UniProtKB/TrEMBL annotation:
Protein name as annotated: NarK/NasA family nitrate transporter
PANTHER family the record matches: HIGH-AFFINITY NITRATE TRANSPORTER 2.3
Keywords in alphabetical order: Membrane, Nitrate assimilation, Transmembrane, Transmembrane helix
Sequence intervals crossing the membrane: 28-53, 65-82, 94-114, 120-138, 159-181, 187-210, 231-252, 272-292, 304-322, 342-363, 391-411, 423-443
Domain Major facilitator superfamily (MFS) profile: 233-468
Cited Gene3D superfamilies: MFS general substrate transporter like domains
UniProt subcellular location: Cell membrane
Membrane topology listed for this record: Multi-pass membrane protein
Similarity annotation: Belongs to the major facilitator superfamily. Nitrate/nitrite porter (TC 2.A.1.8) family.
Pfam families xrefs: MFS_1
Main location: membrane
InterPro entries, per the entry: MFS (IPR011701), MFS_dom (IPR020846), MFS_trans_sf (IPR036259), NO3_transporter (IPR044772)
Amino acid sequence: MSHTITEWDPEDTVAWEAGNKKIARRNLIWSVAAEHIGFSVWSIWSVMVLFMPESVYGFSAGDKFLLGATATLVGACLRIPYTLATATFGGRNWTVFSAFVLLIPTVFTMWLLANPGLPLWPYLLCAALAGFGGGNFASSMTNINAFYPQRLKGWALGINAGGGNIGVPMVQLVGLLVIATAGNRQPYWVCAVYLMALAAAGIGAALYMNNLEQHKIDVTSMVAILRVRDTWVISLLYIGTFGSFIGFAFAFGQVLQINFIAGGQTAAEAALHAAQIAFIGPLLGSVSRVYGGKLSDRIGGGRVTLAVFAGMILAAGVLVGISTLDDTTSGPATATMMTGYVVGFIALFLLSGIGNGSVYKMIPSIFEARSRSLELSEAERQHWSRAMSGALIGFAGAIGALGGVGINLALRQSYLSSASATSAFWIFAVFYVVASAVTWIMYVRRPATLRSNAEETPAQHNLLTHGA
């Protein structure tokens, strides 16, 4: 059968109920599957570093943070071209390709872990190739955005993104099972699991997904969003939410392992204990993303995002306090201190997940509001809104992921300079304060304090403030 749909209007409620919603759901399911595996491969080095004791591989904590930063950087940079790819090659076609191409870094990872003693650069190259999995998010989100009507975008994008994000804790959970059953010298089983998963995702996408013929995102749309003030604001907010999620996902296990080793555990014991905890944070962050989108559908993305950053300021404050106490206390971290680290990180994961959903819900609402002032037909207006939303989804996803690079580099430098993460935690807290202020000014203030802006009417501001 043909996998290309020539006519697709998600706002046509009659056609939607007559069968289009089933088509959209089928594409959503396989999009989530492929994106889920992509996230797992992207973050696979957050697990591999637990299998790499310094005595065997010769890599310091700073080297391992650099692996995470490299994978995150490549994944971030690829999100813009991946956004354009679904409109150029088709959502189904690109999903198939993006799944199968990840077989390369997965096999490469197996080979590297089997040959300790190599210099750092092959590992950095492999981490960069694994970063291709980070691009899957942008292509998947842009594709699903075109399938669903405005009234369901918060739910659909939340499910798609949340299901993909769960790939991070899933690969960590697989790593935990391998460490617990085969020991920390058998990382190959983690890669073997994902070789099979990638094959299944690629074949499933080829059989059950569709291309939308009229779904186009050209360079004009990508350039146009650069002139929109909200593009840069949303990207900043996404650095704070998704950047925190993916950055901490790469770093959490290693921070725990460092503290466990400092407490006197062997490398094997520290790896197992870190793996037992590390997957919980990304799991909660992934699940909460779905609820962040649904909550934003009800009360507004701006309000939810502001509450998220307020909570993240408190959580980062907890980490600053615990880490400062740890620095000034002789001996290894106590059980109370370790509990404080875990609670602070878990709270950041949970809140960043909610913020991921709320910030992405704001994107289609922003351009829906702006489109109301355009002198276009209804069909043209909807097309413009979808095209601009899709472009910003990819752009904000790319810029937001750079926050994960910053988190890993900040932690790396903090440990190198002071053997502590306190300085990095201070940086995170200050950023969240800035992000909360920007959110309040741009999307939560009442119309009475409306900024003078020729391209935004009071009616549009009301929609962005209360209906985003």
